[in-house]
Every structure is written in structure tokens, then in C-alpha cells.
Specification:
Layout lengths: L13 H18 L1 E5 H18 L4 H11 L2 H14 L8 E8 L6 E7 L4 H26 L1 H5 L1 H22 L1
Antiparallel strand pairs: 1-3, 2-3
Helix pairs in contact: 1-2, 1-4, 3-4
């Protein structure tokens, strides 16, 4: 029975678990993504998302609360400056867990946990989709404009003839 078991203890005592989660949270804030096991990533997500929510409102009280969890003043500074600025309008869901397969040594399920707003590939992909819609229309216009360049080579063929006649006219006028 799992009555009252609200979070994963990760087979560690309380002090070790809190220190490990604090260190992982600081690494996540500093590097914006880390690789770990799926169980630790899920525990870290529960640990760090309330701290990111607190960082949205930059008050001394919130900084002190976050510092009691992270125990790293550089991590707190980065959280309140850079991370809070990017996630200011997001109502929640600041992290993403991507499963990466099994570890070679002990076959543990591995995952990458990252801050959602700091991934340029996914965020940039949304902007490219909008541009691709306009590109589709541009391709149709190019298909219509393709016959027009085929019509233009014929006048270009006439254009070299015109200078030849003009050069003959020049020689005629010179005579």
C-alpha cells in the first residue's frame, strides 16, 4: 500500500535527497538542461517548478525562500534574473522531460530535463511553421512566374539582334 506517499524518496535519506535535488536544480538553472534518470528527473521537476514560480516576483522574501531550497547564491541570482525574465508570462510547465533510452552500465532509464523557454530548436520551430505557410503561397506564385521567364528568353534572343542592326546602322551612318 502507498498511503500518504506523495513523492519519490529515491532510496535516499532526507538530507541526502534534499542536497541532491538542490544540486541538480542549480545545475539545471545554470546549464538549462541536464541528463539524469527518469525518476530523478520527475522528482526534480516537482522540486524546481515551485521555485521558478516564486522567481517571477522578485522580492527579498521570495529570494530568501528560494535560497533555503537551492543553497547557492549564484543559482538564485541566475534564477531571478535570466530564467524569471523568460518565463514571466508562462502560467506553469517550465520544464520538459525527454526520455533518452537506457544507460549502458546498469540499464537505467535515462532522461533529459530542460527548461522549456531556453530550447531554441522547439521555440524556433514554431516560428518556422508560420513562415512555411507563407512559403507555400510563395511557391505557387513561383510556379506561375516560371512560365514568364520562359517567355522572356525570346525577347532576349531578339535583343542581341537589335544591337547587331544598330551596329550595322552605325556602320551605314559611318559610310
Amino acid at each position: 500500500m502507498r498511503h500518504g506517499k506523495k513523492f519519490n524518496h529515491l532510496s535516499r535519506q532526507t538530507g541526502h535527497r534534499k542536497s541532491m535535488l538542490a544540486n541538480m536544480a542549480c545545475s539545471l538553472i545554470e546549464h538549462k538542461r541536464i541528463n539524469t534518470t527518469v525518476a530523478k528527473a520527475k522528482a526534480l521537476k516537482q522540486f524546481v517548478e515551485p521555485l521558478i514560480t516564486k522567481s517571477k516576483e522578485d522580492t527579498t522574501h521570495n529570494r530568501r525562500i528560494v535560497f533555503t531550497y537551492l543553497r547557492n547564491k549564484y543559482g538564485v541570482t541566475e534564477l531571478f534574473r535570466e530564467v524569471a525574465a523568460k518565463v514571466g508570462d508562462r502560467p506553469g510547465g517550465y520544464t520538459r522531460i525527454i526520455k533518452m533510452g537506457n544507460r549502458l552500465g546498469d540499464n537505467a532509464d535515462m532522461a533529459m530535463i530542460e527548461l522549456v523557454d531556453f530550447n531554441e530548436l522547439y521555440n524556433g520551430g514554431k516560428k518556422e511553421e508560420k513562415k512555411s505557410k507563407s512559403r507555400r503561397g510563395g511557391k505557387a506564385k513561383k510556379a506561375e512566374s516560371t512560365p514568364a521567364p520562359e517567355a522572356t528568353p525570346a525577347p532576349e534572343a531578339k535583343a542581341p539582334e537589335a544591337p547587331e542592326t544598330s551596329s550595322e546602322e552605325t556602320t551605314d551612318s559611318a559610310e
